[in-house]
Fold this sequence. Notes:
Helices cover 25% and strands 27% of the residues. It is α+β, with helices and mostly antiparallel strands. The chain has one domain (2-356). A hairpin with a 5-residue loop joins strand 8 (199-206) and strand 9. Helix 1 packs antiparallel against helix 2. The longest helix is centred in the first third of the chain and has 20 residues, at 67-86. The mean pLDDT is 95.
Amino acid sequence: xxxxxxxxxxxxxxxxxxxAMHPEILDHGREQLALAxxxxxxxxxxxxxxxxxxxxxxxxxRGEDNTELHQYAWDxxxxxxxxxxxxxxxxxxxxxxxxxxxxxxxxxxxxxxELELVERQSEPVIVFMGDKTSSGSFNLPFYxxxxxxxxxxxLVIAEALHQGFAFEVHDLKNHKKxxxxxxxxxxxLLVFIGSPAHYAIKRVVARATxxxxxxxxTDKLSLIAGRYVGKDDxxxxxxxxxxxxxxxxxxxxxTTPYIVEGFMRGSHYGPWMPTSVAEAHPARxxxxxxxxxxxxxxxxxKLIGPxxxxxxxxxxxxxxxxxxxxxxxxxxxxxxxxxxxxxxxxYTTMPAVAAxxxxxxxxx
Length: 364
Ligand code: 13P
Ligand code: 13P
Ligand code: MG
Ligand code: MG
């Protein structure tokens, strides 16, 4: 019987500012998931936080895009928002962009990643949670995991991985998708995924077995709202071992804190710092952006875990590097390339300021 892992996530209010989630909100998420397990909607469910975002990690047998499950997650965010309003948390209901639920949570604000699988003899999975960054940020780490033999030794030396992986890439602005086969189409793939604000890897498939290896949330808040309302702080699910990269190969890309979009007001580039759950509270200039890795073994759909995978001294150098890069980028203040380029600023003050100044420009 196939199972589905669904991670549906939203920022429904920050404590303090955008830095963290209040424990009452997280408790509420946990209670709602426990009720859903009791009622039989879910096999298992856990709520976790990265910065000010709540990630509902749900295991079930209802497949992807299940209306009842999406509605349940939406309702949990709506009722959680009531608590956020009572506590006057910052940006209560920030990511809930629709007035009422309508069939599928996609396009309504919350981010989602869903992966259907037939559980193997042993099924290790990693759930990544991001804050102060953006959908598309998993492009580079997914490329490293599934296409770079200098990262993933298994691409060279493990028969099950040697056929490579297929990458489903979404054009976020034009709502189109395309599949590239790696390794033979790597150069074509990179032309697109090297621009993560425009193109995001939605899923990766093992070519040897046709199984989905990884999936990420690609929902873009600004494209839904038409203005800046907060960042799309993404999530990803990655299966490990066997026909997939090993756990350590999946975690290896994060030893480099690659530069991502996000940070203060979602309008800056900064290093993506891998941290433990306990250290995922971005405070310095609302950053630097964070990524947390929760490790699980699935056992008949039960989530055995999590293990807090970046709670490991071998990530200290990456964290130190991220701090050094932040120090350097911050010196640029409101200048590019710390501030995002103009076309990425179109959802902030730029249109209003440009309109106000329009009549004052004259020919040179
Ligand atoms: P599907 O390919 O599953 O329809 O995903 C679309 C999507 O999630 C756009 O964000
Ligand atoms: P979030 O997207 O995490 O809410 O951050 C928004 C922001 O503006 C931070 O400065
Ligand atoms: Mg927020
Ligand atoms: Mg956030």
